[in-house]
Write a structure and sequence with these properties.
The chain is an alpha+beta fold and about 140 residues long. It is built from 3 helices and 7 strands. The radius of gyration is 17 Å and the shape is globular.
C-alpha cells in the first residue's frame, strides 16, 4: 500500500493520492480558509470508513435491508509534550432500515474486536468505544 502527498499551494494544502488515483485534501485547519481536513480529522474519518465498511458488509451478508447509514466519530486528545494524540475515540453508528438490532450490535462488535484494521492499529494507545442506533433507538 502506498500513497503520494503533494503540496498544492504556498501554505499547508496537500493532496494525498492512492495507487488508484483517488485523493483527499489535507490542510492546516487552524488557519482561516482551510480547503481540506486536518490530518487528525482524517484519522477519525479512517476509523469511520473502516468500521463502516465492516458493519455494512456484515449486515448485507445477513440480508439486512439498510436504507440509511451514518457514523459520527469524536476523538478526545491529550497533550503529550509537543503533540496532542488521541486518548479516546467514540463511534456512533446510526442505521435505518429493516435491521435486526442484535445483528447490528454484533456487526459493530465484530468490526472493532476483529476486522477494523484502522482501529486495531490505534488500539494499543487509544481507547475506542462505539454505540449503535437502529431506527433512532439505542441498542
Amino acid at each position: 500500500m502506498k500513497i503520494t502527498l503533494n503540496r498544492i499551494n504556498d501554505d499547508f494544502l496537500f493532496e494525498c493520492t492512492n495507487a488508484q488515483g483517488n485523493s483527499i485534501l489535507l490542510d492546516n485547519t487552524s488557519q482561516p480558509g482551510a480547503k481540506g481536513v486536518s490530518p487528525m480529522e482524517s484519522v477519525l474519518m479512517a476509523v469511520a470508513g473502516c468500521s463502516g465498511i465492516d458493519v455494512v458488509s456484515i449486515l448485507k451478508k445477513q440480508r439486512q435491508n439498510i436504507t440509511g447509514f451514518q457514523a459520527e466519530v469524536e476523538g478526545e486528545r491529550v497533550q503529550v509534550e509537543d503533540a496532542k494524540p488521541f486518548k479516546s475515540i467514540n463511534v456512533k453508528f446510526l442505521l435505518e432500515g429493516e435491521i435486526d438490532p442484535k445483528k447490528a450490535q454484533k456487526a459493530a462488535e465484530l468490526s472493532f474486536e476483529k476486522y477494523c484494521s484502522v482501529s486495531k492499529t490505534l488500539e494499543p494507545n487509544v481507547e475506542i468505544g462505539y454505540e449503535v442506533y437502529v431506527n433512532g433507538e439505542k441498542i
